């Protein structure tokens, strides 16, 4: 087991992920009462320290837009001839990134989408395909796993972290047409496909898509001088957009596939602009309700005044009618 652990997790030694994985296996051994194995494990690894801390990147929607425009040659930016030769690949990988932004997926969870181009039945409900133009809810169904086919045709099933789930879009309220803006429902742009070497290590095949995404991002950042290189930054940004749009903790946690407590940790990773947006935005419509209330009060006062005027005019009209009726009793001189 020690050899297997080192083969799978050894590349993360010194990082928090390595420490957490080690602790999880040790806990499993204790729960299954394999006391001798626990002793061997502890003696071999001892106390594990985190020596490499990765600085978490913070991005906002405007940086994402600018980065995308530069990479795809949009918004007035132009690409070199060499870059244009790979435009289809650029579009595919940026579509994957855009889906991760909208739904808060982990790096390669986009490969587990079950209803991309066909409807899927979940329980008694039929969830339409994302590419279906009549689909306005744009709910996505994630499978428990996805397949990676290596260059020899072997199929590898890769499980996602929290197994299958349903996910809803988390769209910044200032950009209600964000899904259309980012070509999420454009079936002409496919999602990327990789065929790793069959001789690759299992961990390399398992992490093929997340590794390739990281490589793409780092190369693009070098090319245009800005952007982001951590795919998890999109997950944090999606959580913020969900908050800004008024989604509850439960809704965001279900979509992201983690606990509500984790949402609070995600809230720490915001730019200054994003923090100000969150502080000043009328998330639950309270300010709008207040404004509507003041408008209705003013309208009510105007209607009361109009009603009082109508009542006065009605009294005057009654008096005039009475006077006219009284004049009929006056003796007419022939």
Brief summary:
Keywords: Coiled coil. The protein is 52% helix and 7% strand.
How does this structure look, described?
One of its GO terms (molecular function) is DNA binding. Residues 279-327 form a coiled coil. With 334 residues, this protein is mainly α. It has two domains: 2-45; 61-280, hpI Integrase, Chain A, CATH 1.10.443. It has 14 helices and six strands. It has helices at residues 2-9, 16-31, 35-45, 61-72, 81-85, 87-103, 178-181, 202-206, 208-224, 232-244, 249-256, 260-266, 272-280, 286-327; strands spanning 120-122, 125-127, 140-142, 145-149, 155-159, 165-167. The strands form three sheets. The chain has a two-stranded antiparallel sheet with strand order 1-2. It has a two-stranded antiparallel ribbon with strand order 3-6. A two-stranded antiparallel sheet has the order 4-5. Helix 6 packs across helix 10 (232-244). It is elongated and about 115 Å long. The termini are far apart. The mean pLDDT is 84.
Primary descriptors:
334 residues, mainly alpha, hpI Integrase, Chain A, two-stranded antiparallel ribbon, two-stranded antiparallel sheet, 14 helices, elongated
Strand-and-helix sequence, N→C? HHHHHHEEEEEEHHHHHHHH
Uncertain ranges: none
Biggest sheet record: 2 strands, antiparallel
The total count of helices amounts to 14
Number of structural units classed as domains: 2
Q: Number of DSSP strands? A: 6
What's the level 1 CATH class of the largest domain?
A: Mainly Alpha
DSSP strand content: 5-15%
Shape: elongated
What does the radius of gyration come to? 31 Å
CATH architecture of the largest domain: Orthogonal Bundle
Report the CATH topology name of the largest domain.
Answer: hpI Integrase, Chain A
Terminal CA distance: 129 Å
Helix content class? 40-55%
Task: Report strand order across the widest sheet.
Answer: 1-2
Question: What structural class do the secondary elements suggest?
Answer: mainly alpha
pLDDT averaged residue by residue: 84
Coiled coil: 279-327
InterPro entries: DNA_brk_join_enz
Keywords: Coiled coil
GO molecular function, one term: DNA binding
